[in-house]
Amino acid sequence: MSNDAATAIPAVDGPQGPQQELPSHGLGASLPSADSRAKTEGTFPYASDLWAEGLLWAAVLRSPHAHARVVSIDTTAAAEMPGVRVVVTHADVPGEATHGRTVADRPVFASDLVRHHGEAIAAVAADHPDTARLAAAAIAVEYEVLDPVTDPEQAFAAPPLHPDGNLIRHIPLRYGDPDATGEVIVEGLYRIGRQDPAPIGAEAGLAVPRPDGGVDIYTASTDPHTDRDLAAACFGLGPEQVKVVVTGVPGATGDREDPGFQIPLGLLALRTGCPVKLAATREESFLGHAHRHPTLLRYRHHADAEGRLVKVEAQILLDAGAYAEASSESLAAAVAFACGPYVVPHAFVEGWAVRTNNPPSGHVRGEGAMQVCAAYEAQMDKLAARLGLDPAELRLRNVLATGDILPTGQTVTCPAPVAELLQAVRDFPLPALPKDSPEDGWLLPGGPEGAGEPGAVRRGVGYALGMVHMLGAEGTDEVSTATVKVHDGMATVICAAVETGQGFSTLARQIVQETLGIDEVHVASVDTDQPPAGPATHGRHTWVSGGAVERAAKMVRTQLLQPLAHKFGMSTELLQITDGKITSYDGVLSTTVMEALEGKELWATAQCRPHPTEPLDGAGQGDAFVGLAFCAIRAVVDVDIELGSIRVVEMAVAQDVGRVLNPAQLATRIEAGVTQGVGAALTENLRTARGLVRHPDLTGYALPTALDAPDIRIVRLVEERDVVAPFGAKAASAVPVVTSPAAVAAAVRSATGRPVNRLPIRPQAAVAAPTA
């Protein structure tokens, strides 16, 4: 990535014009993360570092088949091995045999059927990690291997893979006149691959049994209260008997921890009466957690002779893998955003999510929205080519704005500066062409050791517009609770919002600094003894948990100012806190916050709950989303049209952020999102053969590294505050993930003249089309 001024956070455009001066603390300051030093020095307490007296080690036996009937399980040899304490299977689960965040369809251990490669069969606790793994390997399982259903199109007619059937959800969206047609029609078939969230650290955890018969689970959960409830039900315990303590999270771009990992861990601790630790290998991590939904999309766009959209028809098929996971809500996002941030008078979309014997799919940044963005933007490029229009100009003729109506019937009430975002990236200067010299060989696609020739390199420029929803959707009850305590000149924030790298802990400190004028702010560690704050997805902690912290801090502020206001015969509204000082409007009162706090202990608890949403109805209509965020990206790529190798030269980004709360942190989030999107566009695809994961490791799964990251130019951040959101801020990291793969694909189309209808882009798709 570039380190020059263009990559740094630019001046933010808003109603008051450019804002160049940044505060040193509070909201708007580039406050560093409290844990940044510990992480860089290697002292940050990750789950894999946990230890306890009398520790046992766990291992899980996983299925080598994608689909099989379990004929028998013999644990005798494993249980008799020296050092083995216990072996557990489905017969040893004391409570609910299945679990799931939305649908309880996933077994703790497979009993009669194996439905995907890597499904858990049994677990072992032993006094040494090698002993545990050897014992797991010694469990004798007799399988009757069955033909797997791996093509989601075949799932409709295939025998049921699950008692609930193969169809998880069907959403038919109907908007406008079905007989409407345009003068120009373009069609396309698109496929999106299986992207893995690839967390920095593989799953790990420690379970410690309690004297009351309960268990404490220490792990990097991103939704501890839901994980606690699911685990307690499987253990046959009440929620009060299970405690989830969140250890250091080494980053998360989806569901960081699979409950299917935590439940065997706690079960082993309860059976042995000893602390048990489980640290997954990278292969187990790939096989166990959820991935982005592979998706098949068919599109037909109608437009008039001027390029204005008339109707969009689409079919969207999500491969959910073996279990439901988050497929229902991913499908809702895909169907609702199938037309993109464009005005479409008539839309008819069919969406399905189906079970297969492929690896499970679930939450990954921008789920649903990313897949459809790649397809509808490819359609916009086809329309532009058919009409002889510049791709950016075609998009500008159709962009959404505040007050327009989505195909779901919901009015866009939040700021939607889509045209401004697109104009910003379109007008940004293009990067210079590399010189044709040996010294610049590293700039060629494939690098200096590549087999290509400079004369075979073509440059392409592509545009994409993306959108995501914030918070939960379709009636999800979004609520978070926070407590702010002040004692001895220091403030403490207690909130169960997990810091996953999105910056909530830093934001909470900034909110309290801004509201109370206290520099020293500590954010307490998270566990399920605290009130719930919900999952760390869709930017919800900035909105919901940040809003709860702000309300609690304002209540403490009132407690602090009331005695002073009463003493001087004025209301608290006439007092302000600035730079650690309390002053009145007339200058009569002037004191420091520390003096006002002397000898006092203040605290308050508050909740934040956004306005409710509703499920999509039988025609795909309804006010399903709380808020929306938008992004425009211009990608510049160099393609070796003989070899099909691609180098992303530059990504110019303009984003609708609502309000900049931490400039440095925001820039980092955008850059990380763009890089993850580039990975989805070019390299990341967890490949399977008849349902079996091929190369489940970081050698076979190609993540983009720092050498693969392009120059990312954040050319404009539009600050138009969303009045219903605390602080007016919007989610920052998901929308560049959604938009960047489509932009890269558009740029490759520009360079090669080929359609590029599959992500990630394969080399053969980047070879230039033959000329007539």
UniProtKB/TrEMBL annotation:
Q: Which residues form the Aldehyde oxidase/xanthine dehydrogenase a/b hammerhead domain?
A: 41-147
Question: What are the start and end residues of every segment in region (Disordered)?
Answer: 1-39
* InterPro entries, per the entry: Ald_Oxase/Xan_DH_a/b (IPR000674), Ald_Oxase/Xan_DH_a/b_sf (IPR036856), Ald_Oxase/xanthine_DH-like (IPR016208), AldOxase/xan_DH_MoCoBD1 (IPR008274), AldOxase/xan_DH_MoCoBD2 (IPR046867), AldOxase/xan_DH_Mopterin-bd_sf (IPR037165)
Q: Name one Pfam family in it.
A: MoCoBD_2
Protein name, per record: Molybdopterin-dependent oxidoreductase
Organism of origin is Streptomyces gobitricini
Give the organism's phylogenetic lineage.
Bacteria, Bacillati, Actinomycetota, Actinomycetes, Kitasatosporales
